[in-house]
Design goal:
Elements (H helix, E strand, L loop, with lengths): L3 H7 L13 H16 L7 H4 L1 H4 L2 E5 L3 H12 L3 E6 L22 E4 L2 E5 L3 H9 L3 E5 L6 H4 L3 E4 L16 E5 L11 E3 L10 E2 L22 E3 L4 E5 L6 E2 L4 E5 L4 E4 L4 E6 L5 E2 L4 E6 L12 H20 L2
Parallel strand pairs: 1-2, 1-6, 2-5, 4-5, 6-7, 7-8
Antiparallel strand pairs: 3-4, 8-9, 10-17, 11-13, 11-16, 12-15, 13-14, 15-17
Helix pairs in contact: 5-8
Length: about 325
């Protein structure tokens, strides 16, 4: 009798014939069509076989914040099919350049630099979205869908500064962004996320630089750029991304008593958390760029692009080695 791993590898998905099925009833027909053909000793082409080549290009990214989005854009534009997994209520702050917003926007989509991300309600929905050359975004922080998705490449871009369960068995090629992972042990490679000379550097053995706990300095400001909640409660933004603000201005309120969030510097709002989210005390809810009006807030950052370049290099190198 075959072992459990061998039996598991015999399972394929999706099941059924490719009839263009969309509704549950139509999907049931496609599955029964394949069963009927097999029972009559026919050799149908199952849906799973039609996507076999696509499996080699399937990328799953854990996280859909601004840095993960930069990676997703780079891989998508390089011909890969990208599926992103996020929290049902994302806590990203650069909401205008994060595909996570597809989960909460009224139209369940967001377009960034000409590429559209769409909310997927199931694995089948996600595959359909990528077939249409869009990026699929699923509410699946535990990555429970990986068993069905069977990606060729898995990228941990959660940026939690610690490993939230990612391991090398998740895909033939695995990599992670930033500290909390050991290359060669947890994942195949780690990408440096600390600003400076090594930003975007690929690490095949060892770890990225430890988290310093302090934001990178821009225009002479570091911690002053970050907007944090003064207390626990629901956030109500008073400004939006792209607005110019002045030092001492109240840019949001938090909690039942509308505790003010006051910016320490003047500049352009680059990040602001979604309204209505409940946060803990000192939670990061936004940031202000001291460079002001000259900053382009509508496209991915130089940091995201540098990291994305490192990811693409790893994917190309290791995918070639794996055949």
């Amino acid at each position: 009798m075959a072992s459990l791993p061998e039996r598991f590898n015999e399972v394929r998905t999706p099941v059924g014939l490719d009839l263009g099925a969309e509704t549950p009833e139509e999907i049931a027909v496609s599955i029964m069509s394949e069963i009927l053909a097999i029972s009559r000793h026919k050799k149908p082409v199952p849906m799973g076989d039609t996507v076999a080549e696509g499996l080699k290009k399937r990328v799953v990214i854990r996280g859909a914040g601004d840095l993960a989005t930069g990676v997703a854009l780079k891989l998508h534009n390089s011909g890969y099919n990208v599926i992103m997994l996020e929290l049902p209520e994302p806590t990203v702050i650069r909401t205008n350049i994060a595909f996570a917003q597809a989960l909460v926007n009224d139209d369940k989509m967001i377009t960034i630099e000409g590429v559209t991300g769409r909310k997927a309600r199931s694995v089948a929905d996600a595959l359909k979205i990528t077939e249409q050359r869009n990026i699929a975004v699923m509410a699946d922080p535990e990555a429970a869908s990986l068993r069905q998705l069977k990606p060729a490449i898995m990228v941990d871009a959660i940026l939690a500064k610690r490993n939230l369960g990612t391991h090398r068995e998740m895909a033939p090629v695995t990599l992670a962004l930033g500290p909390g992972f050991s290359a060669g042990k947890d994942v195949d490679a780690v990408i440096e996320t600390c600003r400076g000379h090594d930003l975007g550097r690929i690490i095949y053995s060892g770890e990225a630089k430890a988290n310093t706990g302090t934001p990178g300095v821009i225009g002479g400001y570091g911690t002053e750029r970050v907007l944090r909640s003064p207390c626990a409660g629901v956030v109500t933004p008073l400004v939006k991304i792209g607005d110019l603000v002045c030092e001492g201005q109240t840019v949001a309120t938090v909690g039942e008593y509308a505790e003010p969030v006051i910016t320490q510097i003047s500049g352009k709002v680059r990040g602001m958390i979604n309204p209505g989210l409940k946060v803990s005390e000192h939670f990061k809810i936004g940031d202000v760029d001291p460079r002001g009006a000259s900053v382009d807030h509508s496209t991915t950052t130089d940091k995201a692009r540098a990291i994305a370049g490192g990811v693409l290099e790893v994917v190309l190198r290791l995918s070639k080695q794996n055949g």
